[in-house]
Structure formats: C-alpha cells, structure tokens
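#struct-queue
[09:14] JT: dropping the first one here, sequence first, then the structure tokens:
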Amino acid sequence: MAKLSKKHKEALAKFDKEHLYSLTEAVELVKNISYTKFDASVDVNVRLGVDPRKANQMVRGSVTLPHGTGKKIRVLVLCTPDKEEEAKAAGADHVGLDDYVQKIKDGWTDIDVVITMPSVMAKVGALGRILGPRGLMPNPKTGTVTMEVGKAVNAAKAGKIDFKVDKYGIIHSAVAKLSFNNDQIVENAQELLNTIIKMKPSSAKGTYVKSIYLSSTMSPGILVEPKSITTA
C-alpha cells in the first residue's frame, strides 16, 4: 500500500472516516483538509446498487451545474458546412468535419466535449476507439448528437457535465473548484446527486445510493449522509 504523506495524515486526523456528514458539513471539511497549492477540483463519488453489465441498469446522463464547473470547456463541433456558422456563433472552439476527423485519427484529443449531428455519425463512429476511452464520444442521450448544435455548445459552455456509472457501479464527477464558495459547491453537488437519484432504474433492487464521498484533488474522501441530499 502506498505510504501516506504527512499532509495526508494531518488531513485524516481532522475528521472521522466512519462518520456520515451532511453535504454542507462535508463541503466545509473538504475546504479545511485540502492541502494542494493549486485550485483543486471538488469531486463527488457515488456508489450505486446497480449492475452496470445489465443494459437496463446502466445509469448515464448529463446535468447542467448551476454555478458551472470553474473550468474552461474546449468544444469541438463535427458538422456539415451549413451548421458551421451556428456552432461558431455559440462559441465552439473548433468547427469542421473531415479535417478534424483525420486530426483525431492522428491522435489529437485536446478537447473536453465533442458535439455532432445525426447525419455525420457514420464518420464520427469510426473515432469510437479513440474518443470512447476518453469519455469524448458523442451520444444522443447526453444531447451531444443533435441538430441543435448551437444549443448543445451553449449547454457545454454553461457547465453541462456528462456522467456514467463505471463497471464497479460508481459515478465519479468533478462538480466545482475549491475556490467556489460553500453554497455554490453544495448546490452543484446537490444538482448532480438529485439527477442521479431521479435516474434510478426500475430494475435496480435494494439500496440504490450505497455511499457518497466528497473529496478534492489529493484529499481523503469524506462520507456524506445520503439522507442529507434534499431531493427536488
């Protein structure tokens, strides 16, 4: 097991690892125990009582965080020429089709979100091996395969994040930066958690939300009381 740093041990001494904290308390604690010199991300990890190998228990979707992510989102729109103006007007960082498809095949992935339209999915589908593992593959369920490319660009820039349960039944997502005030972090985390709770598959049996952890980059995780999440 990796040896804990002195700072990590000091952080662990400031809270009870077994205790369930309310979301508000957890945010306050994360701010107290974070020891990075940069503006760290605040991350939420949710373990769900689902079997992701079953298609009817796959939990994936997107949510627009009320206070954004604090990160500059680089958006690529792969579209036909008639849609290029709409994408550029909405603030897309890169717009085009064949030249960018080739660029990605050559290994370029310097982007955070890829948006495309149904008519060019055949070309984009060929990039699945590169975009898929990086979580960049456009998907109709997350609104990134659409005729309304301008609207999708606006959503991505406004703090829309995509999430998907991994093979262990866990959703990991960054919801804020540590420099956000406490209320902003709580509201962003609440928005993500409410969305996940509403997406409970009808085939999932037993406890749906098994555990919620809040942490920042390199900080220990703090256990959050699921009942403290006020469902809208």
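[09:21] JT: and here's the second one, same format:
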Amino acid sequence: MATISYEKDADRSLIASRKVAVIGYGSQGHAHALNLQDSGVDVRVGLREGSSSVQKAEAAGLRVVSIDQAAAEADLVMLLLPDTEQRSVYEAAIAAHLEGGDALFFAHGFNIHFEQISPPEGVDVGMVAPKGPGHLVRRAYTEGGGVPALVAVAQDATGKARALAVSYAAAIGATQAGVLDTTFSEETETDLFGEQVVLCGGITALVQAGFETLVEAGYQPESAYFECLHELKLIVDLMYEGGINSMRYSVSDTAEYGDLTRGPRIVDDRVRAQMREILAEIRDGRFAEEWIAESRGGRQRFHELRERGRRHQIEQVGQELRAMMPWIAAGRQRPEDASGG
C-alpha cells in the first residue's frame, strides 16, 4: 500500500526555518507562493526582467526579485517554470547559488528524471506535486482545506529531504487532503501517460471524432456538441465523486448497457497496443527528446497543431453555445493565467 501523510505527520518547523524562492508565477507558482506566505513562510518570487507577472505578484502582497537574487537569498528553491524552460533558467541563474544543505524542489519530475538538470551533491532534491491546477490549490487553502499532492525525493543529501517535502506540502495545504509518497520516475511517467492517453490526448481525440461522426451523418452540429462534449462534465463529475460503478449506477440502464457493450469496441486491442507504445516512448525518453527538440527548434509543428485544433468546428459551435450559458464560464481559468512568469 502507498504511504500517505497527513497534517499530523508534518513537521512545519522545517519549512518555517527556510528561506523559500518560488521561481515562476503561473498556475502553480502563484498558489504555492501565496499559500506559503499565508502559512508564515519567508517566501520571495523570482521572475525574469520584464515578466508580465511582476505586477500581479506584487499586487497580491508578495516580494518579487530577479531569479538570480531569489536563488541567492533562498536555501530552498521551488522551480515552477514550464518544463522546457527550466534547464536554461537553472543553469543561468540558480545552479551557482546552490550550497550544501540547500534544497531544490520541483512540482513535476520531468527535468530530473530525463536528466536535463543535474543538481550538485550536498543538495536535497525533492518534489511536491499538487494533483490539481493552481487556482484550485489556492482556493482549497483559503477555504481551510487542501488539494492532495505527491512527494518524492531524488537526492537526500541531508537525510531530511522527505520530511522537508512533507513540511512544504503542509504549508501549501496538501496535508489537509493527503500526501502520497512516490518517485520521480513514477510521477513523471504516469503523469505524461495520463495526459497523453486519457486526460488530454485521449479525451480530446475521442470527443472530436465522435462529433465529426455525428455531423458527417447529417446531425446538427449543436446536437453533436451537446452529446459529445457538453455532457462529458456530468459523467466525469460522477466518476470523480464515486468511481466508475457509481457513475453507471447514476445513468440510465440504456446508457449503462451501451457503456458495457460498446465501450470495449472503441478501446479495443489495437488501442491498447497504442497505449503500450506511447508508454514505451515516455519511459525510454523518446517523447522527452521529441518535445525538447520541438521547443528548441521554434515549436513550428506544435503551433500548427494547436491552430488546427482551434479551427475545428466543435470549437466554433461550442463558442456560440457557451455564450448562451454564461454560468459555465464563471470563475474559469483564462489561458493567460497559466503563464510561467
């Protein structure tokens, strides 16, 4: 069974004794910095010169300095920039300031697992990865709760790296919900697999293909949108609240029979073979190499694919229908809120 820690297991004095630098003020960065500050931790936000996030962070009452100064002042650096930007920033502004006994933390294992960043000996290397977007991490904290998180240790130089990670997790509210021990490799590989095969890649491809199938058969695009995208939230919420069996209990018998008999025809042995191949590409580093090369090369293919998705008919139909339902957009995160700073 997995090891799960709660508030009673956290020694908050460990994080309270640290000077923390949160590098980046995007989705996770703003939540970590604000929650840490509200927990009484000595925190500063490190941002690049000219970052659009400077004013937002300062307006929230946070102290903002350059990344270089933040790393120089701190003895715990939490690196929350996008994966493809972390290595260059680490080498330019952080590495030179790390000393024995310091800690370098991440919220995703990508750069350590795929050896893009190699911290020096004598430095604790850990992970605190909330299992939810930053705005939820912040909201749950302000309401007295928290979002579950994963903790991992890649290098335990002081013998206290895990305890420090749990202490950090407590300061951002995660121990209120539960903190699960994992490893950098497990977190990285399962996270990428989930994103690509189910949560993002799998669902979006399935939704678009279902929409296209109905429209090509002559049904109204609006009807296709409601059936293939809009109602997805209902089903996901039911699974989130009680699991797959609970969802099946809540829908009609007709829907459940269709689920049980037709679902396996969609996700068949060929699809499972593709899942295994995608997992292999993640585990042996092929995906990481591809994504790093794409980013260093200017992201032309990435931008082309993104634009193609934006032009898909389901996006145009959905935009018109959602405009009729303004309650849907209430409190939603805007794309610009996810920038890394």
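[09:30] RK: nice, looked through the second one.
[09:31] RK: The longest strand covers residues 124-130.
[09:31] JT: good to know. Strands lie at 4-5, 19-23, 42-47, 64-66, 76-79, 103-106, 124-130, 149-155, 179-181.
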